[in-house]
Amino acid sequence: MTRRRATAFGAGLATALAAAMALAPPDTHAERPAPGGADCVPVGRWLDVAGGELRPVDKVMAGLARRSVVLLGETHTNPDHHRWQLQVIAALHGRNPNLVLAFESFPRAVQPALDAWTRGELDGDAFLARTRWNEVWRYDPALYMPLFQFARLNLIPMVAMNVERDLIGRVRDEGWDAVPEAAREGVTTPRPAEPGYVDMLRDILSQHRPGDDGGDKKPAMADDDPGLQRFVQAQTTWDAAMAQKVAQVAKGPGAPLVVGIVGQGHLQYRYGIPHQLAGLGIPDAAVLLPWDRHDDCAQLRTAGGRAVADTLFGVVAPQATVAAPKPRLGVMIAQGKAGVRVAGVVDGSVAAAAGLAKDDEILTAAGYPTPGLSDLVDIVKRMAPGTWLPLTVRRGATDMEIIAKFPKRD
């Protein structure tokens, strides 16, 4: 989720490291950017949002290296955001090698795989398989691999800061209090959300609710709306889980500088993870975000004057490209008893046309067993436009064959 875009989140290693040496011109005096327009955060420059001044990179990095926590936001699919993260990490490591990298992309259960990776015991494919990348995160791993390679190259510990999606989904469906303590993965009760965060989440949730007459007009959602309350609880649980892991590491042996790699919706306006960290005794976690050229400068601050981040770095917004669409079956999936359970079917999708239904269990795809989520994801990714995918599906006590037909590319 992200506030600035009102939506529901690779460069080679040598190239990125070289870029780290030239994050911005070596000026020594703060400047004020041009007022408004695309120049509110010039490309390649650092803006201190609170002070409204451009700052030289050496001053920015010197200050960050003295913090206990630095949080680097991203849009998960934007390559420039990940390149920027890498050059910041490289610059910080040069000033403070006592560094730990914490990633939203990994649930805590896969921590042994992260440790084995940094020790050089896994190749890239084995690392992605053992971290359940295609099951848990699913974004293009090439966007993140330079970060993982930099960590291994420099023996920087990597920490899984997230929890399983099932926990967040359960809180969203049932509420925090309904989840037994044994099922909370060690997460303690989140700090209550600030009113501004509730308003932001209300806007996002309302976009996905139909109008009273089935049209585009969205119904107003009161603070006591049960759906909104559970949605806010789910988001704060997610924020708190990551904040608690970051705080545990930052306050642990050696007191390292923890650099968090996380979607910017968890960081903007200090509503998410930073708010939870403040409740854990870390009120000064630095929040850094990339700022895409032509982003709306009105989003630099809330109406009440709260800054979107401590520091912004201007990047060139990616040009619109026509990429081959990836095959999509059109189902939400969860782990079932015998295979992959269909948790939901997208209207108008390949799955809907094939007749898949909620709570079906997919036992095989293309003749291969699908005992886990990643098994099905890997098979669907290999489908070409215009091909058919035979599925063995268990519905109740009956097994049946269903053919999913992927449309031809226009």
Tell me what the structure shows:
The relative contact order is 0.14. This protein has an eight-stranded mixed β-sheet, sandwiched between helices. Strands 9, 10, 11, 12, 13 and 14 form a six-stranded antiparallel β-sheet that branches. It has helices at 13-20, 57-64, 79-95, 111-118, 124-130, 133-136, 145-153, 165-174, 195-206, 226-250, 273-279, 350-354, 373-381, and strands at residues 46-48, 53-55, 69-74, 99-107, 158-162, 257-263, 286-292, 311-315, 331-335, 340-345, 361-365, 368-369, 388-395, 398-405. It is 31% helix and 19% strand. Helix 10 (226-250) crosses helix 11 (273-279). The protein is of the alpha/beta class. The model is unreliable at 5-30 (pLDDT under 50). It has two domains: 13-166 and 230-315, Rossmann fold (3-Layer(aba) Sandwich), CATH 3.40.50; 331-405, PDZ domain (Pdz3 Domain, Roll).
How would you describe this structure in keywords?
Rossmann fold; eight-stranded mixed sheet; Pdz3 Domain; 2 domains; globular; alpha/beta; 13 helices; 19% strand; six-stranded antiparallel sheet; 410 residues
Summarize the structure.
The chain has 410 residues and is of the alpha/beta class.
Topology:
Elements: H1 13-20, E1 46-48, E2 53-55, H2 57-64, E3 69-74, H3 79-95, E4 99-107, H4 111-118, H5 124-130, H6 133-136, H7 145-153, E5 158-162, H8 165-174, H9 195-206, H10 226-250, E6 257-263, H11 273-279, E7 286-292, E8 311-315, E9 331-335, E10 340-345, H12 350-354, E11 361-365, E12 368-369, H13 373-381, E13 388-395, E14 398-405
Parallel strand pairs: 3-6, 3-7, 4-5, 4-6, 7-8
Antiparallel strand pairs: 1-2, 1-8, 9-10, 10-11, 11-12, 11-13, 13-14
